[in-house]
Amino acid sequence: MKKKANEYIKITVGMSLVAIGLYFFLMPKNLSVGGANGLAIVINHFIPNLSIGLLMIIINIFLFAIGFIFIGTNFGFKTIYASFGVSVLVLLFEKIFPMKKPLANDILIQLILGVIISAIGMGIVFNQNASTGGTDIIAKILNRFWGIDLGRGVLISDLSITLAAGFAYGLQIGLYSLLGVLLNGLVIDAAIESMNIRKQVVIVSNYSEVINDYIIKSLGKGATLYEAKGGFTGSDKEVLVTILSRKDFVLLKNLINSIDKNAFIIVHNVHEVIGEGFKDIENF
Length: 284
Prior knowledge:
By secondary structure, the protein is an alpha+beta fold. It has helices spanning about 1-25, 35-45, 50-70, 75-95, 105-125, 135-145, 150-170, 170-195, 210-215, 245-260, and strands spanning about 200-205, 225-230, 235-245, 265-270. Strands 2-3-1-4 form a four-stranded antiparallel sheet. A hairpin with a 6-residue loop joins strand 2 (about 225-230) and strand 3. Helix 2 (about 35-45) packs across helix 3 (about 50-70). The longest helix has 26 residues, at about 170-195. The chain starts with a helix and ends in a 14-residue tail after the last strand.
């Protein structure tokens, strides 16, 4: 229950960042970087009486209906919560904080800040095995019926929306929107990677038993011990290998420093860890 609540708290933070990036930075300059939100910005040009937040809700309802018909119920409640959550937040922002003009006159600043903020939010949502809906559903339909890769399907959908933005708002907006699509993908990947980075720690120490006990009992993580022989001394050694978060690694380093200043330590960054104590294998 606690784990589930933690997941939804993170999803709520993520979708809030997506909504902030969209409403305060991308929407005022009509920058459409794909997804249901980008399509809503384009449609708003032709139907200005409908707010973008309301259009996002309508588009998501339509896409989920199409998804249920063609690919079944494989969305998950977390994706439904995140996609409609973004739409509702944008609708609330429109009511509470009406934007009479952009925060900055420079369209590039608006684009970069909007994409970075919203892409970090998407990365947080994706990292909880959910998504913000939109073009993900179109990509799944393309994958199922035409065998197009999911990543390529998302790109096709988003590029189609940026072309529509260029048609609606002019070539300059279309090109900036295209830049936003490309930047969005890079920032999402970087955000997910940074959230999943762990430290693989290899330790050679005369106090391996004490260190192993600390890792298991105090840090709540596992470790593996290997028998080895020193190439220089020829003496038998124990090599301890463990994988920790950055915070836990600092605690372990402090312990080793206090008990064995001659310990030999190798540290690697690992970008994905699946198994007990880390990411569940079914979510990989």
